[in-house]
Amino acid sequence: xxxxxxxxxxxxxxxxxxxxxxxxxxxxxxxxxxxxxxxxxxxxxxxxxxxxxxxxxxxxxxxxxxxxxxxxxxxxxx
Amino acid sequence: xxxxxxxxxxxxxxxxxxxxxxxxxxxxxxxxxxxxxxxxxxxxxxxxxxxxxxxxxxxxxxxxxxxxxxxxxxxxxxxxxxxxxxxxxxxxxxxxxxxxxxxxxxxxxxxxxxxxxxxxxxxxxxxxxxxxxxxxxxxxxxxxxxxxxxxxxxxxxxxxxxxxxxxxxxxxxxxxxxxxxxxxxxxxxxxxxxxxxxxxxxxxxxxxxxxxxxxxxxxxxxxxxxxxxxxxxxxxxxxxxxxxxxxxxxxxxxxxxxxxxxxxxxxxxxxxxxxxxxxxxxxxxxxxxxxxxxxxxxxxxxxxxxxxxxxxxxxxxxxxxxxxxxxxxxxxxxxxxxxxxxxxxxxxxxxx
Lengths: 78, 352
Known about the structure:
The structure holds 2 protein chains of 2 kinds.
Chain A (H helix, E strand, L loop, with lengths): L1 E6 L4 H17 L3 E6 L2 H6 L7 E4 L2 E5 L5 H9 L1
Parallel strand pairs in A: 1-2
Antiparallel strand pairs in A: 1-3, 3-4
Chain B lengths: L15 H20 L1 H10 L8 H31 L4 H9 L6 H11 L7 H10 L4 H13 L2 H10 L2 H24 L8 H5 L15 H36 L2 H8 L6 H9 L6 H13 L4 H13 L2 H7 L5 H25 L1
């Protein structure tokens, strides 16, 4: 079980990122707890300045733009 | 991202060599097409059962020429900008600016504002990230103003549609306004007008995503992705802008234009700003309008003021910033930037 947080105010790319994360989780058979963080204050507190940002088990792995699919799979299996 | 950079498995899809060949080939094809725009647009216009020199004929010719021209230019500019900006990120920019408290922090911030990729939807976390890292408020404003004001899309289209002289004037003055407006606001000591929670918070450290390795092909991919996203988003504004430009080009009499947007009426510059602020479009949509206005004899100062206020001062952006700035600070922000725009407008109407 991995805890994934997706940081973003709810723009199109943030939703696309969430869909990518869920799809990769399903594909790899990794159980995910996906949470979307949309509040500007919490986004900034996490150290994210360019959205969408992604953290895995509390560690920020990505900020700005859609994540790369191969890298996404690596984060989920690491 | 920091630990997994080595040993990336081979990418599926397009092989690298195809990128190295495909991008130059696409550039040449676009360039050749670009050279044929006049005959093609004249041919398209001739298909309509109207006199070429009638009002409608003029408007159709303008539209048929500008739509492919702007879309081609836009594609090229967005691609090149996307590739260039892949070397920059808000995180890197923040690290560069955090150490700069001296006077040249302002022009540096304006410069980085042009090169750093950020979308207006993340301007709030970006603003907080900057301010909480100890970057002075004025420097942060220089960054935020320069981004839209002297964006590459606006400059590139201005160059292609109106010419290099006006594009250069726009660049110099847009950049100066961003720098000076930030400086003035920095001197005003406005920190107390931030929303309370922004002043009190200390943002967490930025994740160590800085040393992300990208190959040239990755950067080309970023460029293409940008083209897909931005051209896909703004084409409707481009069409609307060109339609309005075509209507002006075909139907508005020159005498009327001179009366309303000529340099003689002192009120034409402030009027242009007042009309420009609530107009929400982007650089790609407004420049065809500017092209038509200038072609009809509108004064340069008035037109520059109109263009700058449309691009740099937009209400939706203010509403987003309301989360971090008090109304009072937003009002000061608008007043300072608008003064710079007014000064530019008056200066050029006076000189020319």
